[in-house]
Each structure stands twice: as C-alpha cells, then as structure tokens.
Recover the amino acids of this structure.
C-alpha cells in the first residue's frame, strides 16, 4: 500500500482532532458523559497534547500520513518525529481505525529506524503500558529501557 508524508498544515487541525478522538474512543466508550461533554473534553485534551508536543519538540517534523492510490489521496494518520543529535524520537504515530493493522505503521517505523541508524542515532518512543502496539514495537526491534512513569514505557531501538 503506497503512503506518503506531507508536512502538517493549519488546515489539518480538524482531521487531527478527529483522529485523536478515534485513538481515545475505547476509553470514552465507558465514560458515562453526554456526547457533547465527551466532544468538548476530547477537543481540550487534543489541544493540550498538541501544545505540549509543539513546545516540548519545537523542531519536530509533524507529518500527515496520506494514502495515495494515484487517483485519490486522503489523510489516514499522523507521524510526528523529533531528530535529535544522538536519538530520534517518535513522538506520535496514529492511524484512523480502518487503516490500522495494514503494515503502514511498520513500514514507516522501519524506514525511520534505517534513517536514524544511517545518521548514527537510536530510535525511541514512549508507549502507554497497556497499548497493544508494544508487541509491534518489540517485533520491530524496540526494547524497554527501564524508564517508566506509571503510564508510559520508554522503548529504544538501538543501533545495529
């Protein structure tokens, strides 16, 4: 499946908010709030996360993942990456539900790991300790590095 990355633009905010809501959908399904309250909460949480990413990693590359079939191009996810001097950090990678599990994320991470290694850098990320993606990251060569804050586990893919 052909995907490409394009830099995030102001026009992408609504898409990113909707994508964020899908990432939190399972959690929100058990919260007994009215839908309008859930929507307001998710909007506030997205805005806070976005501000945190932007201020913590001002030089990070923020891409929209585009599925490109030649005839159509549509956004299907996001990929945020910080390229440090010794370590590249995947800040966030997420796909719309219908595009998860198709190998696009594995392909992006594998290509990014190769680029990081060519630059002499490790590749790291933080993952929610309950996130099913941890097994994917392990298959892609990431190992837990011990840094754990109760919610998120740091994982690192060392240089080959």
């Amino acid at each position: 499946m052909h995907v490409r990355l394009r830099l995030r633009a102001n026009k992408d905010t609504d898409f990113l908010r909707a994508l964020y809501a899908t990432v939190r959908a399972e959690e929100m399904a058990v919260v007994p709030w009215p839908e309008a309250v859930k929507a307001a909460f998710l909007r506030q949480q997205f805005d806070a996360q976005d501000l945190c990413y932007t201020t913590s990693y001002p030089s990070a590359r923020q891409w929209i993942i585009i599925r490109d079939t030649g005839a159509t191009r549509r956004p299907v996810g996001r990929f945020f990456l910080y390229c440090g001097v010794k370590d590249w950090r995947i800040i966030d990678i997420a796909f719309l539900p219908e595009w998860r599990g198709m190998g696009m994320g594995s392909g992006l991470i594998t290509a990014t790991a190769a680029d990081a290694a060519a630059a002499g850098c490790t590749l790291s990320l933080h993952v929610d300790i309950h996130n099913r993606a941890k097994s994917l990251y392990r298959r892609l060569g990431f190992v837990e590095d011990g840094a754990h804050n109760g919610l998120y586990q740091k994982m690192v893919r060392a240089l080959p």
